[in-house]
Amino acid sequence: GRGCSIADLIVGSESRMCDESKKSIWYRGCKGDRLQCPLCSQIVCHYHGAANNGGLKGGHSGCKGSCSTSVIFSHMCAGHMQRCDTCGNMYCKYHSGPVPHVGKVKGGHVCSGATVGGKAVNSLHNTIVGPPSVGSPSATSATQSRQLGPAGSSTDVNTKPQSPSRASPVAAPIATMYPETAVAPPPYSPDPPESATSTKSSPEKSGGPTAINEPGRWDFFLSHTQRSGQATTLASELYSALTAEGYSCWFDVRMRDKSMLAMYEGILNSTVVVAIITGPTVNPDSPDDDPVTNAYFSRDCCLRELKWACESNVQIQPAVRSEDKKKIGELMDGAPANLKHLLDIDFIDFDRSKAQRFKVDVDSLIEVLVRVQQQRRST
Length: 379
Hints:
Elements: E1 35-36, E2 43-44, E3 82-83, E4 90-91, H1 118-129, E5 143-148, E6 154-159, E7 218-223, H2 229-244, E8 249-250, H3 260-268, E9 270-276, H4 300-311, E10 315-321, H5 328-332, E11 348-350, H6 355-378
Parallel strand pairs: 7-8, 7-9, 9-10, 10-11
Antiparallel strand pairs: 1-2, 3-4, 5-6
Helix pairs in contact: 3-4
């Protein structure tokens, strides 16, 4: 029942092996008490306690539900699952406590019964995106999605279910969906079919009047780590080359709003996410940092962007500098298990040493956009 204490779920001893850690050598690192997840009955430690949080950091997979917080903040989930005694929704430990006021959301959740203003905010949210489905299997249960592989072929990817067009964020209580604001803007509707005579987005097909950044939808999202000067330089040159051809790009240094929510809007409303993958490097702004922490797959924001792209069925196109072409395997060694499938997609290596070669590489990227758009029109 709602009053069930987490202590009542403790099973076994500290030495008992966590069920999640048995699934793969990559899932080791158990910490804290082993408890039985009330949603799926797996025995998981504190580190692996959060259900279906995407696997970027801790958490466990194969659960029948997930934390009732929004999908865009599921990466923050931590600790064992438990039910809020007041609203009855399931949350991870981090999001389990009701916040005192809707204007002060940090961790926890906006509770209809315990948060000042919570009932009105959740009522508005439910009117916009629909109420949560409490007690039913979560929308985060794994299913097979598809991403384009070499030459437009398909590659199976384990990710969350989506409709053929890009979906809006998963409906949930307002919780920590928009932690900086009390009321969430409405989600975007899928874009109308694009003209068969043009591959470029236009202002008329933008995300609408509530877009965080204009025009509200983009052809490309340039995902890179700012801690790598090499990645930033390549991203900047790609931005210049693509926009010169009339294509729209979400590029953080060119965006008015660079917040997490703005990044999510960019991913959700882009046709292709270009993942500029770089390895360990010295950060010129903080040269004493461990170079490994500056690699693409070590950066939390980069991992979030790829996670959101997979969840929203947005095509990911891996890219490297031509100097790193022979290091792709080494670079991918740093990728989490749920992103290893990127190796099944042909990487584009960009050679900036010669203008003509760089143009050929950019044209290859544009061909990916064309294939994705053609596939959408045929479905």
